[in-house]
Amino acid sequence: MRLKGRHVVITGASGGIGEQIAYEAARQGAVPVLLARSEERLKEASARIEAQTGIRAPYASLDVSDRGMIEAVVSQLIADLGAIDVLVNNAGFGVFRYVEDIDLDEMERMFAVNVFGLIACTKAVYSHMKERGSGHIINIASQAGKIATPKSSVYSATKHAVVGFTDSLRLEAGRFGIFVTAVNPGPVETNFFSTADESGEYVRNVSRWMLRPEAVAKRVVAAMMTPTREVNMPRWMDLGSRLYRLAPGLVEKVAKRAFFQK
């Protein structure tokens, strides 16, 4: 009943974690609102969600790297829905390269989507939530935002930025009854890696430890409209990141071979 009738807006919702969050939110009685670039894929996802849950899932095309488009889409959603209760900033992508191989245009796109787009989407709903005195902003970050490893310098930089933004936002938003949560999963079985690691080497190396998107989605939805500070998965990786903060030199020395699995 905690989520029944709540409007849950999800970016990057045409597949992967975003689509699974939409399914799980609908199963809990919420109304998932799907945002992503591909309208055709959104239409298909919306139809699947309604067929499986009986909940209608509105959708709208959105490129989170287009700030003007964000403002227009969010304003229209508020007008159509009356309220946005939860925003899940899930849109993002990564590319794994050694520093000497970084493509600077690619770097700019990564920051535009993973960081600037996330901040712009947050800002677009923030005043609305402040006026209502309630709401929940959930930012999908990564364990890479806590421990940077070789070949992930730019991607980790974007996720470190998301973690820092989220921590600051949490302190500000709490004054107005708005919850803020960072979600830090390890590797997840999605098409993320078709872009991040075209060689497939990383997936082969870590496949036995990869999380299912459905499991991540359940944890995210369970946290909705609760004062959950962070969701960290898997537990052993969370323990590793805590140890890293206490003894970074030791962890880098002991886990060096594992860090080069990309």
TrEMBL record:
<dbReference type="Pfam" id="PF00106">
    <property type="entry name" value="adh_short"/>
</dbReference>
<dbReference type="InterPro" id="IPR020904">
    <property type="entry name" value="Sc_DH/Rdtase_CS"/>
</dbReference>
<protein>
    <submittedName>
        <fullName>SDR family oxidoreductase</fullName>
        <ecNumber>1.-.-.-</ecNumber>
    </submittedName>
</protein>
<keyword id="KW-0560">Oxidoreductase</keyword>
<dbReference type="GO" id="GO:0016616">
    <property type="term" value="F:oxidoreductase activity, acting on the CH-OH group of donors, NAD or NADP as acceptor"/>
</dbReference>
<dbReference type="InterPro" id="IPR036291">
    <property type="entry name" value="NAD(P)-bd_dom_sf"/>
</dbReference>
<dbReference type="InterPro" id="IPR002347">
    <property type="entry name" value="SDR_fam"/>
</dbReference>
<comment type="similarity">
    <text>Belongs to the short-chain dehydrogenases/reductases (SDR) family.</text>
</comment>
<dbReference type="GO" id="GO:0016020">
    <property type="term" value="C:membrane"/>
</dbReference>
